[in-house]
Amino acid sequence: MKVVLFCGGLGLRLRDYAPRTPKPLVPIGHQPLLWNLMRYYAHYGHTEFILCLGHNAGAFRRYFSRGAGLAAAAAGWSVTCVDTGLDYNLGQRLAAVRPRLQGEEAFLVNYADVLTDLPLPAMLANFYQRGCVASFLAYQPTQTFHMVTMDANSQVRSISPMANAGLWVNAGFMVFRPEIFDYLKPGEELVEQPFQRLIAAGELMAYPYKGFWATMDTPKDKLILDGIQHQGNPPWEVWSEGTVPAPLPYAAPAQLRARTPVLVASLAPVQHARAAC
């Protein structure tokens, strides 16, 4: 399957750390996050990459015109860089590479700033089994914020850790059939109107997972990932001998007994707020 990687965002929250380096090229240890992500997909046999470029596109071309390009070629990877507009949103970037996805039964899509140890074949098997148009990895945030409910007079009715709130977010690992373009109109953001149409049609699935997942949005996130890398055997390096095996896909007590993904009934704003990179 081809892998579409969104590499055109501004990465504003990481500007203080690397003002001239696009977020996917910020290193974790000795290699950029992007390289780690590509190795993850390649480990499972997906080695045709389409990079949707925008801001600082030249940095990606320089990176792959040097040692990284030689290493990718030696590994049998195909890397295609496509200019998809400086100010385009994710839906527009995906539409821009549609001609390069002709003939594909399905393709993978990623925000290019996230890492996981998700057993990808299990997610894809469920995707094909359910026959849906789109599916994404759903993950429960681990932030230390507390969820608050209140009445019309702002009197607090409850307060509880976010981890106990049953909140799931779109974690950025997605798989689409070409029919996704039937739900995407010109100029639309990928997870705004198109996902709502998919929900209405019963064609959007979530794949809940409670293994390792991390994003690199802020300098703090980068420091955390660096620390994990420094300790050795980082969980996202599924290609490395000695990496701790990933747990089985998470199954919730009730509706997920059969280890099948959840039909998405609604998307709250928190699930797509980070999609603008």
Description of the molecule:
With 277 residues, the chain is an alpha/beta fold. The longest helix has 13 residues, at 219-231. It is globular, with a radius of gyration of 19 Å. The chain is built from seven helices and 14 strands. Strands 5-4-1-6-11-8-12-14 form an eight-stranded mixed beta sheet, sandwiched between helices. Strands 2-3 form a two-stranded antiparallel sheet. It has a two-stranded antiparallel ribbon with strand order 7-13.
List the helices and strands and how they pair.
Layout: E1 2-7, E2 27-28, E3 31-32, H1 33-43, E4 48-53, H2 57-65, H3 67-74, E5 78-83, H4 90-96, E6 107-110, E7 114-116, H5 120-130, E8 134-139, E9 146-150, E10 156-161, E11 169-176, H6 193-201, E12 204-208, E13 213-215, H7 219-231, E14 262-263
Parallel strand pairs: 1-4, 1-6, 4-5, 8-12
Antiparallel strand pairs: 2-3, 6-11, 7-13, 8-11, 9-10, 12-14
What's a concise summary of this model?
The protein is of the alpha/beta class.
Structural class per helix/strand content? alpha/beta
Mean pLDDT: 84
Uncertain residue ranges:
244-261, 269-277
> What's the shape?
globular
Q: What does the radius of gyration come to?
A: 19 Å
Biggest sheet details: 8 strands, mixed
Q: What is the tally of helical segments?
A: 7
Largest sheet strand order: 5-4-1-6-11-8-12-14
- Order of helical and strand elements: EEEHEHHEHEEHEEEEHEEHE
What is the number of beta strands?
Answer: 14
Distance between the termini: 24 Å
Secondary structure: helix percent = 10-25%
Sheet-strand content, in percent, reads: 15-25%
